[in-house]
Amino acid sequence: MYDEPDSFVYDAPLWRPPSEGDNLIIQATLGCSWNRCRFCSMYRAKRFQARPLFDVFADIDAWSKSWPEARRVFLADGDALTLPTDHLLAILERLAAAFPDLTRVSAYAQPGNLLRKTIPELALLRAGKLSLVYVGIESGSPGILKRIAKGVTQKQMIEALAKPQAAGIKVSATLVLGLGGKAFWQEHIDGSQAVVNASPPEFLSTLQLGVAPEVAADFAKAYPEGFEFQDDLGMLAEQERLIAGLAPKRPIIFRSNHASNALALAGNLPKDRDRLLAQLAQVKQGAQPLRASFLRGL
Asked: What is the pLDDT of residue 3?
């Protein structure tokens, strides 16, 4: 265990992937430089800024005294990969010097930021122990990507997923079930399959759509014809269609264990496809319960 540095306070809200819950978090940026995805409320209350290196170094030095054995570090907030490469390299060098047992640094990475980095730049970051990035695909459908203001096309999303892997950086990607509503769910899933099959990440997770009140009006602009949310059976149908159609050229570790999901699934694709589909069939027949609504959340 560790003792939090005296008087240390993160700039809230602080978001991180579930798998980073036991790891050290260093805020390299505050907020999100894009901050326009119509369904996302994570950083709407924050003004984006790149933190000065002096402040980031001060945090690293403080944590090195209270948690010198830290092995994994997550660079928050939502946009560390927007930083210039030399800025990121300076942070990675400071982390390596401060934590002798450091094995991995990870960060969220917007597709647009990955597109702006060259593969040699990403390789330099990998040499500095940035070995995992979390990428929100959200949807692979060209139309839905445009509706939700993701900022990239389907083709660009495929390229963005491939670039870090070409540099030796693993990708953990997410899809958001329900983003197409009842009207466009098949388009949503089929486009998502196309992206993942073309550029498979090492890890793939699904979340279920939840629209916070503060972004509800913005999300409504994505569907001026009206949006009808999927119910649990609709979400299961999306999950079933997704898994059935995924044929990645290399294995993917698949999870739907995020708290937003009605059903937690885990397996490797394509190896465990039949087992996962059988599990979904059992649930649809009532043989296995769904996660209670009050236990779900973002």
From this structure: 66
